[in-house]
Write a structure and sequence with these properties.
Helix 3 (94-105) packs parallel to helix 5 (128-141). The chain is of the alpha/beta class and 375 residues long. It is built from 14 helices and 13 strands.
Length: 375
């Protein structure tokens, strides 16, 4: 019998790393007989959240921009959410966390446990006015959190740097590595490769932070040495035209393919010669875990804290074409099998353990609670 509800708030229905984590959380609770109410600040654009569970309700505004969706969201929350007592509320973006915390402080929302998750290292990515805006958001609603999750120890340290006086006032802040749903990772694998020749693969939004320009240049440097190897980049974004121009400039037409958004990234990862994370900076690249679940040859820049602690991944400095090239070549020539090593590390990050850690930190251990079912 369904007798509990959770609330999730997102800026939009796209599926970046932060959104994928919240989707895993929502799907997990739905499978454990919770009603999941998911609210979006913007209007529906994709179908990424459809069909994740029979107990999941999706609420969209009609706004094209997030700031215009706030008032519409408040109307929806007043209509659908204020009459419920939510066992959990989850957010993963600073502004949505601040908003939920602010509304909870006003008793507009009834939430037993509010869990906010930091999705980026704000101190590294923003300066000036944008950084001051983040600080304002933190002060507006973060003190209302029952648990603030940082993806890495580095992220926790950076948060302390920008808010040294505010930091000790938080109820609880813990480092919990990003989860992966191993069940989902093994559902869609196809024995047929999605590309006709051998290839490297990378995935993510086509933005500056992902470093796909560096990856294309690195691939150019080895393209003659590996004439039957292609490069595939999955994802869409504002840097597409620049990357297409770079491909033409380097004469890599027919060797580098920008495939756009793909729902089935796992199949691409499974059949690749090497999977590559080329980012300049990340909170933590969730795609790295997805790659590890399918392939034992994975290269990543040290674009986030704690990547150096993952065993079996070939790492290099971010923003360095030469080092990235060398790491790719090392992976291509490697004969050691890291599959078992990857499986062991991913098991520790499975969504089951992720939720269990959250419940443990919140002190939810009495018989009959969801955390009890994870043992």
């Amino acid at each position: 019998m369904i007798n509990n509800r959770i609330l999730i708030l997102l800026p939009n229905d796209t599926l970046g790393g932060a959104e994928q984590v919240l989707k895993q959380i929502g799907k997990y609770y739905s499978q454990h007989n919770y009603i999941v109410d998911v609210f979006f600040l913007k209007k529906k654009k994709e179908n990424n959240w459809e069909g994740i569970g029979e107990n999941v309700n999706l609420f969209y505004t009609k706004a094209d921009r997030e700031k215009y969706g706030v008032l519409q969201l408040l109307v929806q929350l007043k209509k659908h959410a204020t009459k419920y007592n939510y066992e959990f509320a989850y957010t993963s973006h600073a502004h949505t966390s601040g908003l939920i915390g602010f509304l909870r402080n006003l008793n507009f929302l009834k939430i037993n446990n509010f869990i906010a998750r930091e999705s980026t290292s704000v101190h590294d990515r923003f300066t000036g006015i944008r950084l001051r805006r983040f600080k304002m958001v933190y002060r507006m609603g973060y003190l209302s959190t029952d648990l603030l999750i940082c993806q890495t120890n580095y992220m926790k340290l950076q948060l302390f740097k920008i808010l040294p006086k505010f930091f000790p006032k938080l109820k609880r802040i813990e480092v919990i590595p990003n989860p992966i749903s191993l069940q989902d990772a093994n559902l869609t694998i196809n024995e047929t490769a999605p590309h006709s020749t051998n290839y490297l693969v990378a995935a993510g939004r086509l933005i500056e932070e992902k470093g796909f320009d560096l990856l294309i240049q690195s691939f150019y440097n080895i393209s003659e040495q590996y004439p039957f190897l292609d490069l595939i980049i999955l994802g869409e974004g504002p840097k597409r035209m620049e990357l297409e121009s770079l491909i033409i400039t380097l004469g890599l037409q027919g060797r580098v393919f920008l495939k756009g958004f793909q729902k089935d990234v796992y199949n691409y990862f499974k059949h690749a010669k090497v999977c590559v994370v080329s980012s300049r900076i990340e909170g933590f690249p969730n795609v790295l875990l997805q790659m590890m679940s399918q392939n034992d040859k994975v290269v990543s820049t040290l674009c986030a804290g704690d990547i150096d602690k993952i065993k079996g991944v070939f790492t290099c400095s971010p923003n360095n074409v030469s080092e990235l090239q060398q790491s790719i070549q090392t992976a291509l020539n490697n004969t050691e099998d890291f599959s078992l090593l990857f499986d062991q590390q991913l098991h520790e990050r499975d969504i089951n353990h992720f939720i269990h850690k959250i419940h443990s930190y919140l002190g939810i251990t009495k018989k009959g609670d969801l955390a009890e079912t994870l043992n």
